Amino acid sequence: MPKPGARWALGIGHWALGIFCCAPVAAQSPLITDVRVEQEGRVVSERLILGLIETTAGEPLSLSEVRETISHLTSLNRFEDVQVYQEPAGGGVRLRYLLLPLHPVDRMEFRGSLGLSEDEIRRVLTERFGAAPPAGRIEEVTDVLRTLYRGRGYPGAQVTGRIEETHAPDRATMAFEVQSGARAVIARLEVDEVDSLDRRVAAGDVGVRQGDSYDNAAVLQALDGYTASLRARGYYEARALHSVSFEPAGTAATVRVAVDRGPLVIIAFAGDLLPPADRERLVPVRAEGSADEDLLEDAGFAIEEYLRARGYRDAAVEHTRAEKDGTLTITFRVDRGARYIVDDVVVAQNEAIPAVELLRLVRVEAGGPFVDRVVSAGAAAIRALYRARGFTRVAVQSAAIEVPDVENETAPGTRRVVVRFGITEGPPTLVSSVRFKGQTVLTEAQLSGLMTTAPGRPYSEADVTAARDRVDLEYRNRGYESVAVEPSVTTTDSGTRADIVFTITEGPQVIVDHVIIIGNERTSVATIERELLIKPGQPLGYSARIESQQRLAALGLFRRVAIEELRHGGEPRRDVLVQVEEAPPTTIGYGGGVEGGTRLRPTGDSGQAEERFELAPRGFFEVGRRNLWGKNRSINLFGRVSLRSRDIVLSEGGERIDRASADGGGYGFNEYRVLATYREPKVFDGPADVLVTGILDQAIRSSFNFITREARAEAGLRVGPRYSVAGRYSYEHTRLFDERFTDAEKPLIDRVFPQVRISKFSSTVIRDTRNDALDPDVGSLLVADTQLAARVIGSEVGFTRTFLEGFSFYRLSAARRTVLAFGARVGAAHGFRRTVARVDPTGRPITGPDGAPIADVVQDLPASERFFAGGDTTVRGFSLDRLGTDATISPTGFPTGGNGVVVLNTELRVALVGSLGGVAFVDAGNVFLRATDLDLGALRAAAGFGLRYRSPIGPIRLDLGFKLDRRELAPGRLERRSVLHISLGQAF
Amino acid sequence: MIKRTLWLCVSVASFVVVDASQQLIDRVVARVDGYALTLSDLRMAIALGIVQPPPGGGEAVGTDQLVDRQLVLAEVSRFAPPEPSPAALDREVAALAAQTGGRLPDIMTSTGLTDARLREIARDNLRIEAYVSQRFGTSAQLTEEEVLEYYRFHPEEFTRDGRLTPFGEAEPAARQRAAAERRAATLAQWMRDLRARTEVVVVGSRQ
Lengths: 988, 207
Description:
The complex is a heterodimer of chains A (988) and B (207).
Chain A: E1 8-10, E2 32-39, E3 42-43, H1 47-50, H2 63-75, E4 79-89, E5 92-101, E6 105-113, H3 118-129, H4 138-151, E7 158-166, E8 171-179, E9 185-194, H5 216-232, E10 239-246, E11 252-260, E12 264-271, H6 276-282, H7 285-288, H8 293-308, E13 316-324, E14 327-335, E15 339-348, H9 355-359, H10 372-388, E16 395-402, E17 414-424, E18 430-437, H11 444-449, H12 461-477, E19 484-492, E20 497-505, E21 511-518, H13 525-531, H14 542-554, E22 558-567, E23 573-582, E24 586-603, E25 608-628, E26 633-645, E27 648-650, E28 656-658, H15 659-663, E29 667-680, E30 689-700, E31 705-719, E32 723-737, H16 748-752, E33 755-768, E34 779-789, E35 799-813, E36 818-831, E37 834-837, E38 855-858, E39 900-911, E40 916-928, E41 940-951, E42 954-963, E43 968-970, E44 973-974, E45 978-984
Helix pairs in contact in A: 3-4
Chain B: H1 2-16, E1 17-19, E2 23-26, E3 28-32, E4 35-38, H2 39-47, H3 58-78, H4 86-99, H5 104-111, H6 115-136, H7 144-153, E5 159-160, E6 163-164, H8 167-196, E7 200-202
Antiparallel strand pairs in B: 3-4, 3-7, 5-6
Helix pairs in contact in B: 4-6, 7-8
């Protein structure tokens, strides 16, 4: 036992501590009386660190626990060393953990007389080592710096590097002291240039000058330029090398340049001609700067392949070299032979699988060139399909049978062939048994449940592989990370029966010891833990780890999320290190664009509707703050404004005013939207997210403008990966203005409630299986939304409104992205009856001849809640809101909206070139006065085409729609035949 | 600047002043890609013969060998070889125990080695062996010229009683030794490559 007493000694003596001069370990472990953790003279109280200490006061000292603690602490990547001391105390021992912090390099500094610019030095080192190289690489970094100086003409540069540690925070600077010395000047230049026969020739201007400062990079660049000029003259194998020697003082350099021109190379072609445009590509002597035999041989193969891909199946290419007087002539003799064209493709002797199905696998087409490689690939695809169906002994042979040209119809040099795939199916192999060996964790029933094959089914290698993968994954999800599942198959009865045995070597199960979360400065540990499916004491599952990482990334709080396993102590227990790098809490976004579409505008004294194409520049600004109080709460403010043309509107007196002439301007910021959102995720620790939103919205519609102020609270919940539900309450106030129709034309509800207060509840159910929300090519989206507004909850009008939407997307071709998209939207609404006393402009009740107050009975929805259709996202042959039956279009041609709507869409989307795509569409739909009026026979149709440009922010869209039946827009005035739309995003 | 200097002084003082009554029981000797190798790991490895520093080689050589082992283990984990059978594991545990010359209980007490850890070390040994055999084979395939070259450059190995054994007679032995040399060189290069792409920090025993 050590002597008691506080004898302090300088630790320098401890530098020499050997491996066996540590504490003698008692036969019986002493009790731990106290555990202290210290760092730089301070007692550590950080919860994360204390939680990783495995040794506990009152317990016997265990060296394995000490070692485990060191592993935990080191895994934080904050400590260079963790030293553990024991000292006698109170009949046991006191443990002291001394944490020596890591000082990661966070910057480089360059001092002294640099000679070169600091930016250049930093750039060179950063490219090689990063902005903050690890301290352990300082020697390597210093060597690179010395090489840089020598290369730039400072042969005598003195460079020394050292690490300078700083504290609070614990960081280090990699500092370099540089004395560059004088820069060497090229005092002597020797150029030696020879031809292919090693004869000295007059040297050209190599671009290096005596008297210039020596710079290795500049010399290399000059020599590259010189060799390029030689290659341009046909010396394709020209080489230029240089060496440098410095005078002892380091101020003068001698540069020696050796140029080997090589032969003058001439490439010639004989026999059948190749297109000149392809010769350089197929014979890349100039590009490669070489005419060696391997390259020429490859060029010959490339030409043969080029010709065979075009049907010249017997193409042969030979090359010869002839060197004379320093000139190398390479001649490619091309004999392309006859061209073979596919006359027909047939499949023979197939019984189990129809020919149509087999031919779909073969990429050989009648009329196309016969290409051996493609035919062989087709035979392999047929063979693979048969094997997948249990025909393990199938043989597929392809043959090209020449068709006699009895009527001399075939062009000279061309032959026609029938491609025949002859199939010998052999007997099908059925699975006779599936057994398992070596399993102790999963039962046979559990393993059978994972099988994709079963006795009685056709034997398929693909099924066995899939079953093996499923068993493997199941074990990995239970923490058996080194599991091995080996299937073996024995066939019997002449290959008609297959016995499958899966041999399972389970290996040890890995259990999570600690979950260590680092890097979160603002985000609470609870917020991160909530997303983790990995828990201490539970198996370390493969899928749980991946899903945890995805869930953390989906929070949107982090730039980077990494989940690592940390081995320690050898036992199959692992710490899991969750490293996050937080994203900036404040986000700012802004942008602009332009929207183009056709709208209805009143014209002339009569105020008749006319369709007019308008462009509306728009801009938006968004600022957000996320992760409020470390709980992933966020707040966002979004503003958008559009610049639109002002138009002729009706004044309250019924007279028409041309806004443009009245205000002296044609455009105004008359459409805007401001939206403030607060999001509370997982409210009350439940599964739902809550969104509180305030909206101020002014919008220009075809028949009226309106301004809305709305407050909304919404609770949303994802139910599995496909479904989500939401319930919301909203309170809004809407005022109509600048209506395009007279009081007489105006629906009664709009006359009675020119401004209306609506209080409503609504709910939405969504099923979304699309692969991309912005531009899907697979999947579907179904949305059902129902609203209820009632006077008992503070609304001035009551109604119910239901809107159903369904969209479906099918990828027709993967090679050229071709998508068929369908959409259907149906809306139905019903207003609750209400009696309202009629009042004059001063608000006094208007009485009838009998002196009794006149009352109006309204049963409609206010304008802001009614359905409209027509425009770039609904029926594209019509301008915005233009659709309607006679009952929902005013005499002047403006839509009044209705309580029922139907919109149907079909669109074919085809990728054209690069990011450009084209669409063709057929749309139909209409708006009906009452929901009970819905009539599919009364739909109006439009067809058209458009272009899409896939930009980073989504497709930019241009659509031109044509009405399939034109009608009168207003008496004597026909609708426009076509309507152009310019917008962002797909139509649906 | 004053604050920084003060910090430096406090920190250095805290490093270098240790109560003499305290005894170091464990510390980090190296970090391999963030994984800590401790002094007790080193003592355990030496006792079990996993690393074999030459006499007087001390901590530095032992640490170096332990770092190499950790680098190989990390590689083994990336391309997991087949799991060793329980019987093979039992044999390896017995071999490790035999290596200690009957001192296993003492070693377990002094280093904190547990049965589970011993089994884990045995498993690591077998996996390393399987991986290396799988990746580098048990012997290199050499051409006649390569064997002859080895024979010519190592005449002392084929000289008996002052007489050089003719190549025809010495060829099997020369082939075996040349193959062993080639394999050793390949493994050494592999280790250098592993070190070059991994962050290895050997920690000095400063206090």
